[in-house]
Fold each of these.
Amino acid sequence: FAEPPTLIEVPQQNWVAHVESVLRPVTAGRFLVHGPHDRHRAEGHPFAIEIEAGGAFGTAHHETTRGCLLAIDRHAEASARALYLGTGSGVLAIAIARLCSANVLASDIDAAAIDIARANFARNGVDGQVAAIVADGLDHPVIAAAAPFDLVVANILAEPLIALAPAVVAVLAPGCRLVLSGLLDHQAEGVRAAYADAGARFDDVIGLEGWSTLVLTRAA
């Protein structure tokens, strides 16, 4: 049985200021991700990304998002057509559009996240480069029509990444890059094996505080 509730008196404070003090700008490679309250800190930065996450995932404070930003910074500059699965706030789509001058197709299963992402695309001036759709996995006519991609980024979870491996590799052009995250360190080898079976070779892993981001290439 559940224990009876306990009431705790919370001290008065400026909670908006408290949250802003915690959500400081995040640097990942060439990128600087910040909230509107830190816009002054990003003035003049060539790869600054302003994010109002709302109810969507993706402020770059989590290791999975930061790992993807580092992977994009190291491996994705030559990409021109990208697919981003699990877009959340849209931060990685903005990073790809900014760094690569790429056209990006971003998808999420959550319609509310897509609305937040679109607002962030406009906030960062990349709404002309990034299209956003509600889609579960890769079974969507817009994804099929836009494939193949030179870059696919998927920041979701290990189990769906494994299930999607053949479909993800199939929409990637031969010789092109794949960035996978949302993985605890102990899950990385299982995901890597699933993508090897689907025809992608391992290139790099970025480990951050117990989380892994994998970089792979589809075999030519």
Amino acid sequence: MANRKRQNIEKGKKHNKKNTVRKRWSGIMANDTLRFAIGSIFIGMAFFMLLSFGSYFLTGRADQSILENPHSGELSGINNQITNIMGSGGARIAYFFIDQCFGISSFLIPIFLILSGLSLMRAYRFNLLKWFFHLSILMVWFSIALAFISAYTPINEWLRIDFINLGGQHGEFVCRYFKSQVGIPGIVILLVITAVLYLTY
């Protein structure tokens, strides 16, 4: 009996803490000025990322050697030789998301930030959970599909961006794994089936 009472008391405390957190969060989100400020920050971050990503396609070849093997304090220095329009910070962000993560489909991340910002500012109402779900699926699918295209077609040479893996390291790793398990035709079949299932949904 004593143990049950203690458990009930502990559960009650946890429940009260959750309610307190929810009330505080609701209070914060009810403040229009704060919502507008956070939304503006999200949109500002999104445009910073978009400009960084866009510039990476033009300046990435020159910046890549510096980003891959930076000397101590080189990127934070004034004369860092980075040519990205958004400076060394933009170059690092673009290199991380495009080269090391999801490739071109990383552009969907700032798009979600813009939607979140507009929703917070109450400029337009979006179902953010739904958008997050769809954009996440699209980002992963396009990462794999573009890595496959980049690996098995000369598209990078045609576009003159052979220094970029269009699907990023995420897509490249997944393609290599599935190639070892189901082969190249199997990857094509999986991509087509998942695309049809998503479009049907």
